[in-house]
Design brief:
The chain is of the alpha/beta class and 566 residues long. 55% of the residues lie in helices and 11% in strands. Belongs to the class-I aminoacyl-tRNA synthetase family.
Length: 566
């Protein structure tokens, strides 16, 4: 049972009268700004022209039909709106019962069953730091994977590693000039990054270094043993360091596939583009002309004969479609790459790829640090692992102050500290810019991850004290307004998941979790639970269990752990 199903039942009852499809009418049903008006409202102004009636009269005519719908207690016409009240007691029993029996069913109707998606996310560059700037792609992609799986999809997560290109020639050249094997092994990413930054600093006064970097990359392309050995070593050391961050975040991938994997797959793409007459010469390069689509040309082969990002992304798209059986390809990459993906998707369409219509650039806003843009080339970077460790330390200090006797403080500090960093980002609408500030991330009051986790722990504590293995809503109990607000929110879990998946935006789930917390904490403060008389006690314990499970599921979908105690 959920709000979506009862909206559909109401819409089905009146669709024939208003001459609109059932799904369209269901989408028109709104939540009144004032709950005193009802649980749902249908504005009837939009039917006036076709029905040639006053909206007030339309609402009155529809009221009788809606009152006959199972689960509806009353329907009243008021100033062109049809205000609808649901039958609270039976609705509460069904919603709470579903949440307790299977919280998955509360959230999901498994719309994606039989479909496969590949999500490209995180994608750090080898030999460069895993900075806070990588956080957004990593955790948005990870949350999307969990949300889509909850919605019934088969999802493959791909970490598209940046481990090819001229920058690796520069790193090799810098290592051979100024590097130390011991220093790289001691702290691989920071040391390799230090060498990369030094290379650019030295190149400002010695521009011939750029040629040396290009020469080493050419050796790498040609399979030179020394260049290949160093390149593979840099990859192994970088991945070892990256994995420590992924383990802290609780993020996993089904596939780690570097850019170089597609080197032997690009020629087939180029040949097909030539055969289909899609390539033309432009200043020595080979491009696909996209002027008919108000886009600049998409470069496929550079003037020096080498490939470019677009060529690799075309090859990667084909590989993911065929190797994984994916009909949907998602790319969780910053908004600054908008044009690149528009070009790639258009070229795929021109090549006749049916799946091109299901390629989506899940763009997100820039992350700044204390108002400043980060730049790896200039060495302006904040290491994500350092941020996570600081958040964990802060969480541990708060636990020591507020609950010094708590068992397993280290594990809970990690859950809370990391959860604070993740939630701080995911609660923001993904296309908005995020300015990373410690005072916001580590604020444990207000609309934060620790607030949601604490509400979950509070509900868990009530259930532990009740020592009730089995809880169930008492069908004879009529919920009051505060209890009903909480139950009605639980019934909207499915709508929240589907909206989050359809918009590729985890902030929908984060905001839903916050709403649930606010409603539960109001209920908790105003209603005795353990000391209540029956049947209130039994029903309130069932409601507490339902909320706890819904919060745990919401946190899971966001990639955040749910401590039982805090």
């Amino acid at each position: 049972m959920n709000v979506k199903s009862i909206k559909r039942a109401i819409a089905h009852a009146i669709a024939e009268v208003v001459v609109r499809p059932t799904d369209e009418v269901a989408r028109m049903l709104e939540y009144p700004p004032n709950p005193a008006l009802g649980d749902l409202a249908l504005p009837c102004f939009q039917f006036a022209r076709e029905m040639r009636k006053n909206p007030v009269q339309i609402a009155q005519d529809l009221a009788d039909r809606v009152r006959q719908v199972d689960g509806v207690e009353n329907a009243q016409a008021e100033k062109g709106f049809l205000n609808i009240r649901l039958a609270r007691a039976p609705f509460a029993e069904r919603v709470v019962g579903q949440a307790i029996t299977s919280v998955h069913d509360l959230f999901s109707q498994e719309r994606g069953r039989g479909r496969t998606a590949v999500i490209d996310y995180s994608s750090p560059n080898i030999a460069k730091p895993f900075g806070v700037g990588h956080l957004r792609s990593t955790i948005i992609g990870h949350a999307l994977k969990r949300m889509m799986r909850e919605d019934g999809w088969k999802v493959e997560g791909v970490n598209h590693l940046g481990e090819w290109g001229t920058q690796f020639g520069k790193v090799i050249a810098a290592y051979l000039k100024w590097g130390s094997e011991d220093e790289v092994r001691r702290d691989p990413v920071k040391e390799l990054f230090r060498l990369y930054v030094r290379f650019h600093q030295e190149a400002e006064s010695s521009p011939e270094l750029e040629d040396e970097g290009r020469l080493w990359f050419k050796k790498l392309e040609d399979g030179d043993p020394e260049a290949t050995r160093l390149w593979r070593w840099f990859i192994d050391e970088s991945l070892r360091a990256f994995k420590q961050v992924y383990d802290l975040l609780g993020v996993e991938f089904e596939h780690y596939i570097g850019e170089s994997f597609y080197n032997d797959k690009m020629d087939a793409i180029v040949q097909e583009l030539r055969a289909k007459g899609l390539l033309m010469e432009d200043q020595g390069a080979e491009v696909v002309d996209l002027s008919a689509y108000d886009m600049p040309p998409c470069i496929i082969v550079k003037s020096d004969g080498t490939s470019i990002y677009a060529t690799r992304d075309l090859a990667a798209a084909d590989y993911r479609h065929h190797a994984f059986g994916a009909d949907t390809l998602l790319y969780v990459v910053g908004a600054e790459q908008k044009l690149h993906f528009e070009q790639v998707f258009k070229v795929l369409e021109l090549m006749g790829r049916d799946y091109a219509k299901n390629c989506v650039h899940v763009q997100f806003g820039l992350m700044k640090f204390n108002g400043q843009r980060l730049s790896t080339r200039r060495g302006h970077v904040v290491y994500l692992e350092d941020v996570l460790q600081k958040a964990i330390e802060e969480a541990r200090a708060i636990i020591d102050e507020k609950n010094p006797g708590l068992e397993d403080k280290e594990a809970i500090a990690r859950q809370v500290g990391v959860g604070a960093v993740i939630f701080n980002d995911l609660k923001t609408y993904r296309v908005h810019e995020v300015d990373f500030r410690y005072e916001d991330v580590l604020n444990f009051d207000g609309e934060t991850g620790p607030y949601v986790q604490y509400t979950h722990a509070r509900a868990s504590s009530v259930l532990r004290k009740a020592e009730a293995d089995q809880v169930a809503w008492d069908p004879s109990y009529a919920p009051d307004d505060a209890e009903w607000a909480l139950i009605f929110l639980l019934a909207q879990a499915n709508e929240s998941l589907e909206r989050a998946v359809d918009t590729y935006d985890p902030s929908v789930i984060a905001r839903y979790a916050l709403q649930l917390c606010h409603a539960f904490n109001r209920f908790y403060h105003d209603h005795p639970i353990l000391q209540a008389d029956e049947p209130a006690r039994r029903s309130r314990l069932a409601l507490t269990r339902a909320v706890r499970d819904a919060l745990a599921k919401s946190l899971y979908l966001l990639g955040i752990e749910a401590p039982e105690e805090m």
